[in-house]
Amino acid sequence: MTVLISPAELASALASPAPPRLLDVRWALAQPNGEAEHAEGHLPGAVYVDLDTELADIGDPREGRHPLPTPEVFQAAARRWGLNDGDAVVVYDGGPSFGAARAWWLLRHAGVDVRILDGGYAAWVLAGLPVETGTVAPAPGTVTLGWGLMPVVEADDAAAWPARGILLDARAPERFRGDVEPMDPVAGHIPGAVNAPTTGNAGGTGAFLSGAELEARFAGLGAAPGAEVAVYCGSGVTAAHQIAALEIAGIPATLYPGSWSAWAHQGLPVATGE
Questions:
Q1: How many CA atoms lie within 13 A of 75 on its CB side?
Q2: What would the 3-class secondary structure string for the chain be?
Q3: CB-CB neighbours of 85 under 10 Å
Q4: pTM, two decimal places
Q5: d(C-alpha 124, C-alpha 8), whole Å
Q6: Tens-place pLDDT, residues 134-168
Q7: Is-catalytic flag, 259?
Q8: What pLDDT digit, counting tens, does each position of 29-79 carry?
Q9: Which of 31, 56, 68, 115 is most exposed, with the fewest beta carbons within 10 Å of its own?
Q10: Residues in CB range of 137: below 8 A, 6 or more apart
Q11: If you average pLDDT over every residue of the chain, what do you get?
């Protein structure tokens, strides 16, 4: 399935008889709630999505900081966004699509036809396309979602993964090495993992690198087409961006949803250094 849609392609789709639904997933670790940014300016008709409450669960720390929501919670959120069966969806954020990729992964997991707006809101504005202010409250939708359509692993499988494939750690190098750990109780990485910072998937504008560039990047890390690849990050959010980038490169990948925030709370083995 196609991962991305450009601003020009989206503008054309929005003028069609069956336009896609738009979801605005502004989110950052330093500012997890992006509702104020959304109100200041968003794509026409876009509904704000709160990542922490609608794209994640809150529970046992051993499940991580952003465990997957339950199917019931996610379906209720999708209906609040106004989604109906058969709707196509485009997700975006302020760039470089970290929050949007989480929504993309979950919607794919639930069987929805979804694309990421490449470059996000910034690319839309740069293209001179229309925006609106305020909030959007759509009529409730009636969508019935599926579940379990994207591959996932838990801690035991993540531990065993490097013996048969490539386990990519999408965090910053200093966190991978264990030099610093600002979020979780233990510093380091899963033994056998390879560092592949998510920031390397996008260019300076926040748009994804080309398929050829991404294929070369991941091949250099041992994740060539045909390899078995799994990905984790700090809490399972930016790892979704890595999975989108891998798919653009033609490499299917599996998500460890709990990621380091779950691993670090379970007393599991830790590696440090390069």
A1: 12
A2: CCCEECHHHHHHHHCCCCCCEEEECCCCCCCCCCHHHHHHCECCCCEECCHHHHCCCCCCHHHCCCCCCCHHHHHHHHHHCCCCCCCEEEEECCCCCHHHHHHHHHHHHCCCEEEEECCHHHHHHHCCCCCECCCCCCCCCCCCCCCCCCCECCHHHHHHHHHCCEEEECCCHHHHHCCCCCCCCCCCECCCCEECCHHHHECCCCCECCHHHHHHHHHCCCCCCCCCEEEECCCCCHHHHHHHHHHHCCCCEEECCCHHHHHCCCCCCCECCC
A3: 11
A4: 0.96
A5: 8
A6: 999 999 999 999 999 999 999 999 999 999 999 99
A7: no
A8: 777 889 999 999 999 999 999 999 999 998 777 888 999 999 999 999 999
A9: 31
A10: none
A11: 96
Residue 267, number of CB atoms within 10 A of its CB: 9
Residue carrying the six token digits 């653009």:
248
Catalytic position from the list 51, 172, 223, 233: 233
Tokens of 47: 């509904």
Which structure tokens are listed for 43? Answer: 């794509």
Nearest to 217, CA basis, from 186, 250, 190, 184: 250
**Among 246, 22, 62, CA closest to 154:** 62
Q: How far apart are CA 166 and CA 7, in angstroms?
A: 33
273: exposed, middle or buried (Cβ count in 10 Å: 0-12, 13-18, 19+): exposed
Amino acid at 263: W
